[in-house]
Amino acid sequence: MPLNKSFLRRMEVLDACFSRKYKRWTIALLLNSINERLYMLDIPRISKRTLYADIHSMQHEFNAPIERYKYGNKICYRYSQANYSILKAGLLEEDVQCLQTVTNLLRKTNEKELVQQLEEILERFGPPSMVFFCK
User: Fold this and answer.
1) Three-point CA angle 17, 18, 19, nearest 5°
2) What is the 3-state secondary structure (H, E, C) of the chain?
3) What is the gyration radius of the CA atoms in the chain, in angstroms?
4) pLDDT in tens, 15-73
5) Cα–Cα distance between 29 and 24 in angstroms, integer?
6) What predicted TM-score, i.e. pTM, was given to this entire model?
7) How many CA atoms lie within 13 A of 98 on its CB side?
8) CA 72 – CA 52 distance, rounded (Å)
């Protein structure tokens, strides 16, 4: 999934929708909400296929706990964890290890400034949690 302005805006809208636990979000409602927001930002509308791809991406690339459930004859979507937000998630443990490896490699060079910046980034994120939004 390309990481562009439209994709990021769609993730923000989906995150806000899935976080509203008292609303039953069908594909039609989600599509309408996203397209309204994109229209306000002068970004082209998306199709149902793109919406399904975005939900799939959130679940499989970003490990978002999205559940699909039936309400009457409708299929609805929501986060299965009450206070989850994809925008508040941290780094994966493997990402932290990768950054630590890069930091150790840079220590062997004379790039002290870069090493310091990477160490600050690692400190800022604290212990690894689920996923960093902008991979």
Assistant:
1) 90
2) CCCCHHHHHHHHHHHHHHHCCCCCECHHHHHHHHHHHHHHCCCCCCCHHHHHHHHHHHHHCCCCCEEEEEECCEEEEEECCCCCCHHHCCCCHHHHHHHHHHHHHHHCCCCHHHHHHHHHHHHHHCCCCCCCCCC
3) 18
4) 999 999 889 999 999 999 999 999 998 999 999 999 999 999 999 888 899 999 999 99
5) 9
6) 0.66
7) 6
8) 21
